[in-house]
Description:
This protein is mostly helical and 150 residues long. It is 81% helix and 0% strand. Helix 5 packs antiparallel against helix 6. The longest helix is centred in the first third of the chain and has 19 residues. It is globular and about 50 Å long.
Amino acid sequence: MKNKILALLLITSLTLTVLTGCSVQESILSYFYYSRGVNYYEKGEKDKALAAYSQSILLEPKFVVSYYGRGIIYSEQGEEDKALTDYSQAILIDPKFALPYHGRGNIYYEKGEKDKALADYKKAAELYLQQGDTKYLPQVLEVIKQLENK
């Protein structure tokens, strides 16, 4: 088990290094802080999770999942502008990552910005469909249907 974890960490680190140009040490630390953020979030310690995601981003500014994780927390804390910024940055880094479109669409929906919400939900649905994601696709399709009927 320990060897599998080390192998996974090494593969993740090397992938980050190749994709982002960061050193292996920065990539490992960034992934460490991202993982720490996930653990804190799952325990309900959102302030600690936010700090961990932010540290991950400082170490590796192109680590897309840290922006997404931080965006979720900002959204839950009612800091929509910060969440929009993080979701948009995640999309800029990886336009094929569906979850930030979904998250940004949720914020636009709550703000009453129907056209922007619809565009993001449609993009998320397209990506979910391409990637075979059956968990979130039905939710997004339902919201699209509601928005198009308004």
